[in-house]
# Entry
Amino acid sequence: MQIQTSKETELVDITEKVMEQIKVKDVKEGFCIVFSKHTTTGIIINENEPRLKEDILNMLDKIVPDEKGYLHDDIDSNAHSHLRSILLGSSIVVPIENGSLLLGTWQSIFLVELDGPRSRTVNVSIIGQNQNCREV
Ligand code: ZN
# Structure
């Protein structure tokens, strides 16, 4: 999936896009792996609430502040983005049940942009079976 981000840092809810992939593959039971192919993004599961999204970005800013004399900044000035990405991780796994993501009521899947805006590639791998129990 290609996702165009619009800010330097932001949380982009990709739950619906991931769900579309499961529908296309017609998988009823299995696992869905969402993986970002970048070193300055994160993939997380959390609540899609505007103030919380801001809290998450503020937390990252506090834990890994910008311009702290990181060595990588000599190359392209985004060491803080890489370090924040490490804290979040670049993939998640969600079970699939009855053709749907087994997410809790308040859980959404986010691509976290940490060095945008950019075009990002997120890979969705689906392992499972369709209704006829064929491997897909
Ligand atoms: Zn870099």
Notes: The CA atoms of residues 4 and 119 lie 4 Å apart. The pocket of zinc ion is lined by residues 72, 76, 78, 82 (CB under 6 Å). The chain has one domain: 2-128.
